[in-house]
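Q: What would this complex look like in 3D?
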Amino acid sequence: MTVRPRAWRESMTPWTSPPLLDVRGLAKSYPPRRRGEAPLHVLENVNFSVREGEFIAVIGPSGSGKSTLLNVIAGLESPSAGAVAIEGDPQLERLGRIAYMHQQDLLLPWRTVLENGRIGLELQGEAKQEANRKTAALAERFGLTDVLDQRPWQLSGGMRQRAALLRATLPERRVLLLDEPFGALDAITRSALQAWLTSVLDRQKTAVILVTHDVEEAILLSDRVLVLRGQPGAIAAQFHVPLPRPRSQAAAADPPFIALKSALIHSLQAPWQ
Ligand SMILES: Nc1ncnc2c1ncn2[C@@H]1O[C@H](COP(=O)(O)OP(=O)(O)OP(=O)(O)O)[C@@H](O)[C@H]1O
Ligand SMILES: [Mg+2]
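A: Here is my prediction, written as structure tokens for the whole assembly.
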């Protein structure tokens, strides 16, 4: 696997180019659950942009609004204030340009792994035979070949997560949103899929926003880590990862990796409110 210096990546995506995704002044509130209660302010003044090929990790305490942020970026929920623009276009209908793997896998129980995996291709009008071929080819890299004809309820939690990840990455989109995609996986499958994602993305220009609870995973995979503070969620800190991508698991032993890990853990523990 070739290791490209960061300077090379940046020269391919000059900072003068407009961001692929721009999140400006984003806020999200939900109406009060009961009469007399205050509305729930989940996100407040969230600002960041993502460039082509950039990998952003988002970490923050449970309930800090990470999944809500992805829902709003995907266009599944509308913001209470602010806007999300993709390629300068602040339209709400972004689903055709953004792939999204939800925190809950949302696989269709009546469909097999193959049929679930090919949904995105079907929706874009791909012929069934071709969609099946592409899904089966990618399924091999996810270790799902043997279960292509099984239904989600016949799979283990980790297999379901891999099937959902397979579905999210077919077809290829400009932006990929991943909400704790490796959460239910054992350590070995988890690092195999992290390595797989790293190698696939290195060949594509897909921008990724990954929500994770795992600080090491955030540093291993991303160019930049956003730390969300809780209630209402806002960006409390941003860290650039000063290590060339793609990184192997061995990078976790590098002094800059260890220093960043401790800074991130410290910022997660800081009393923001
Ligand atoms: N549709 C909704 N209606 C009302 N409240 C909601 C809705 N969706 C989320 N919330 C609330 O918004 C807050 C943030 O939820 P969210 O799921 O975004 O957090 P999270 O950071 O993803 O948490 P976790 O790490 O546990 O997945 C929570 O208090 C949650 O109860
Ligand atoms: Mg969540």
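A: To summarize the key features: The pocket of magnesium ion (ligand 2) is lined by residues 66-67, 103, 179 (CB under 6 Å). The beta strands are 21-30, 40-50, 55-59, 81-86, 98-101, 175-179, 207-211, 224-229, 234-240.
Q: Very helpful, thank you.
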